[in-house]
Amino acid sequence: MSDRRRDPGALKPREAVSRYLRRRSADSTEASIDSWKYRLKLFVQWAEGVGIETVSQFRGYDLDEYFEVRSSEIAPATLEGEMWTLRKFFEYLEQLEAVDDGLSQSVRIPDLDEDDRSDDTQLDAPDAIALLKFYRQSDHHRASRNHVFLELAWYTGARQGGIRALDLRDLQLEDNFIEFRHRPETGTPLKNKRNGERPVAIPPEVSQIIREYVDENRYDVHDDHQRQPLLASMDGRPETGTIRMWSYLATLPCLHDLCPHGRDSDTCEMTKFAHASKCPSSRSPHKIRTGSITWQLDSGLPPEIVAERVNAGIDVIKKHYDAATAFERMERRRRQYIDNLVIDL
User: Fold this and answer.
1) Using one digit for the tens of pLDDT, what is the confidence trace for 22-79?
2) Which among 140, 141, 137, 59 has a CA at the least distance from the CA of 93?
3) Which domains does the chain have, with CATH numbers?
4) pLDDT of 298-317, one tens digit each?
5) What is the DSSP letter of 162?
6) What is the Cα–Cα distance from 338 to 342, expressed in whole angstroms?
7) Ordered DSSP codes for 30-57
8) For 240, phi and psi rounded to 5 degrees?
9) CA 82, 87, 90, 91 torsion-angle sign
10) How far, in Å, CA of 206 to CA of 147, rounded?
11) Alpha-carbon dihedral of residues 63, 69, 72, 76, nearest 10 degrees?
12) d(Cα 29, Cα 183) in Å, to the nearest integer?
């Protein structure tokens, strides 16, 4: 029997996920596909581990059991994202008539309050500043790839995909700015497509560090499209997972101070490429972005300016990225406007 007439319920979970991601790739960004792929890979591994061989075998109990497993392992906000992804996947299986109608509604979505939804694991400004000071003053680490990644991520607040997309031609260092460009035809789309294109100003000292990196430490390579990536591996433009690992390595706290977790940095496996994400204090690109946006706001930049720099809506910044306390927000208002409230008596 040909695959075209195959019973869709006979699809293995791994096959079904691959089919679903191919279906979504036509109208979704690469970053979204990568995120869904990772989340569904965890689900497939669990399903195979409990002996589910075809998608027709899934029952509501299985989906509830997976919710219980994941809820004991991850934060509520992360669980919410995973369960939404899983529900969309099962809606697709329902469209194929591979599972019972309505099974997708058995995927439980956690009901979060605002405290659960907020995420306080951003890279805080004091930690970022300590790391940048270490890199700038280090004979060995200054203008290294990890250093330049952190400078770019912190001073621009850009998304991981935007930093990965930068070419040498996007550097305008004489004028102290860089340009983010949407180039989907050669493998580097921006999340908001053409609306994500923008110039972003950087301080002269950041321009100087990038210049040193390009002159002394950057691999002189091209990617598969004959473009020259700014942050280059030996083989060309890195994959998104590699960028993420560079981020974890760049933010290890033991670079500039004693390990806050009581480990010996000389023997700790978390200082190695494959394990840096396990360090409780290392940070992903998204957590650097969150901290950067908060820091830019605390530094007195108006929200509308920060929104333009980081390519996000003002409402999104206030809800998801601005981790300042109520007191800190009061201090911002006071610094900018309190003089206007003084009455001459």
Assistant:
1) 999 887 766 678 778 888 999 999 999 999 999 999 999 999 999 999 988 777 777 8
2) 59
3) 3-117 (1.10.150.130), 125-291 (1.10.443.10)
4) 888 888 899 999 999 988 88
5) H
6) 7
7) HHHHHHHHHHHHHHHHHHHHTT--SGGG
8) -65, -35
9) negative
10) 10
11) -30
12) 12
In sequence order, what are the residues at sequence separation of 6 or more whose Cβ sits closer than 8 angstroms to the Cβ of residue 107? 63, 67, 83, 86, 87, 90
Cβ contact 145:214 at 8 Å = no
Q: Which residues contact 291 (CB under 8 A, 6 or more apart)?
A: 122, 123, 124, 125, 128, 154, 283, 323
Nearest-angstrom CA–CA distance, 16 and 36:
13
Whole-prediction pTM = 0.66
| 98 neighbors 9 (Cβ within 8 angstroms) | yes
- Tell me the per-residue pLDDT of 273-294, one tens digit each, with 9 for 90 and over: 888 888 888 999 999 999 999 8
Give the H/E segment covering residue 171: strand 171-172
- Tell me, what amino acid is at 335? R
Cβ contact 89:45 at 8 Å: no
Listing DSSP states for 287-321 in one string gives: HHHHHHHHHHHHTT--HHHHHHHHT--HHHIIIII
Determine contact, residues 16/93, Cβ cutoff 8 Å: yes
173 residue type, one letter: L
